[in-house]
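ping. complex inputs:
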Amino acid sequence: MDLQQELTEQRNSRFLALLEPVYEDCQRWAMHLTRNPVEAEDVLSEALTSALTSLSQLKNDGAFKTWMFRIINNTYRMSLRRGKRPVDLVDPTDLGHVKSERPDAYLRDERARAVRQALEKLAPEQREALWLFHVHGLSSREVSDVLGKQEGAVRVMLTRARDRLAQQLRLLGMDSDILGELK
Amino acid sequence: MDHSDNKLKGNNPAGSQDQRDAQWRELLACAEPRQELLDSVLPWQRVLSLVEAAPPVKPHWSDLLFSRVSRQTRFALAAVALAVGSAAGLAVMPAQSDQIGTVVLARVPMAWEAGGAELAEVEAAAEASFSKLPHSEQADMYFLPLKSSDGDAHPTLAIAFLNVDSAQAEQVFEGLAQRFPGLSTGVAEYHDIQSQVFENRLQELLSGLREPGRYRGLGEAQIRSEVLRQLHSAGLAPESISIERTADGGLKIEVSATMDINVAGGHLQEALGDIGLSPELLGSEAYEQLMELQPAQ
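pong. complex structure:
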C-alpha cells in the first residue's frame, strides 16, 4: 500500500468513527434547515465531502459534532446563494410524527401541528438556534460556533425565540398550562 | 452543557432549569420529521460509498518524511549510564546529543520542476554522495522538492538528513552546490532537527531510576525488571541494559534505548514538534515556511 492510500484510509476510518455516533443528528440538522428530504440529501452529501477533505483541520475530535453542524449550515447557506430557494412551508402530513392509534394521538398531532405553525412565524435563525440548543442539546457557545454568531447574540436570540414561540402558540390556542410550565 | 441562558427570559419559572429544558425539548421535538423520512436522507450505506469515492489525501511533505522515518529507522539512539549509591553519590553520564538530523533548504531556479531532469540529476548525485559517507544504518536522507504557496516564488529543495552528523550533511550539500550552480540561487539554510521530546523522556527515565532507595535489597533480575518498567513508562524501547555492582558498593546501570515516532493522521504538528521541527527551535519564520510548502507534483 502506498503512502497516499494509507493516509486516505486513515483519514476515512477516523472520519467514519467520528461521524457514526452523530450521523442521525446530522440528518436531523440537514432536514431541519432544508425541510425537504431531497434538498437535505444534497446538502448533507456536499457537507460530508467537504468535511472529509478538510478533516486534518479538525484539531479536537470532541468538537466534531459542532464542526460538522457548522459545515452543514455553511453548505446550506451556499446552496441558497447559488439560487436554490428554501422550501416555503412544511407539509405537516409529511414531516409530522407517525400517527398513533393511541387515544391521545389526536391531541398530540394537534400539538405538533401547532408547534410547526408557530415555528414558521420565527425568523430562520431563531428557529435554528432554538433547535440546536433544545433539541440537539448544544450549549449557547456551540450554537454560536455553528451559526457564526457572537455567543451573546445567540443568548438574546434564544430568549426572543422562546418568547415569540410561546406567544404564537397561545394565539394558536395551545393549552396555557403547558406554556406556563415553560416560562 | 450551559443552558443558563434560559434565565434571560426574566420570568419566574416554576420547576427546575432541567425540567424546563426537557419541556422545551419535548415541545420542539414533536415537530420533528417522521423517523422513516429522516432515515431516507442519505442512508448510512451511501455515506460509506461517498467516503470511499472521496478524493484521496494529498500527503503533506512532512507525511512523506515521517512515513519514511517510522518505517525505515528507529529514530534515535541514546546511551545513558548512571551510578547509584556509590560513595561519590549519584553520577549521571550525559546522554548522546539530541541533535538527530539536519534539514537543508535551498532555493532553486524557477525552471527546475519536480520530476524534471535537473532535480533528478541533483537527487542522483545526492544519493551517490550520501552513500559514500561513513554513517550508521539508521542514517537516512530524504529529498523533497517543494513549491511555495506563493506561485511567483522560487521553488525550494529541502534535503532532510536523519541520524547524520550535521557536518556530514553540510559536506553533502556543499558538494552538490559546487556541482550544480542552480542550488546557489539563494542562500542555503541549515536547520538542526532536535528531539526535545527524546531528551524529556530521558530525563523522565533518569528521575525514575534515580529515586533513592529504589534498588535496596534487590537482586539483578529485579533491578533489570525495574529498569524495563521505567523505560516503558518513559516511552522508550530498550536496546540493551547492563547492570554492574561497583567496588564501593554502588550500582552502575547502562541503558541504550530507542524511541519510535509514529505519526497518526491529524497530528502532524505534534509529530513535527516531536522531532524538533517547532517554531521555537526553527524560528517562526522558517517553521511557517516549512508548513506552507507543499509537495511538488
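Chain B touches chain A through 53 residues (CB under 8 Å).
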